[in-house]
Specification:
The radius of gyration is 17 Å and the shape is elongated. The chain has a single domain (about 10-90), classed as 434 Repressor (Amino-terminal Domain) (Orthogonal Bundle). By secondary structure, it is mostly helical. The protein contains five helices and no strands.
């Protein structure tokens, strides 16, 4: 049996990046997007929790701020799984019988 994280603990990685990394660094979203070579809209959408973190963007944050891309991607996965668990009862899939 796997341990389950309470959904309230699964923070969207974009929100975490905004409050814990970007805002304390004192850099604007516009300037950070230019530094990353991405659109302001793409970065803003992520930081506002409206888009998932890609591996490419995780590496950009790792290079700029030193936070491990692996950690950021695990945070994103935990958030996604917590969201899916909220409606898992609606996912109707029967257990497969094992082949003999």
């Amino acid at each position: 049996m796997a341990l389950r994280m309470h959904p309230s603990l699964a923070v969207h990685v974009g929100d975490w990046l905004k409050t814990e990394i970007v805002e304390p660094a004192g850099i604007s979203v516009t300037d950070l997007a230019a530094h990353f070579g991405v659109s302001r809209q793409a970065l803003s959408t992520l930081l506002n929790g409206n888009a998932s973190l890609s591996a490419d963007m995780a590496i950009r944050f790792e290079k700029a701020f030193g936070v491990a891309a692996d950690t950021l991607l695990r945070m994103q996965t935990q958030h996604d799984l917590a969201k899916a668990r909220q409606h898992e009862a609606q996912i109707k899939v029967a257990r497969l019988a094992r082949a003999a």
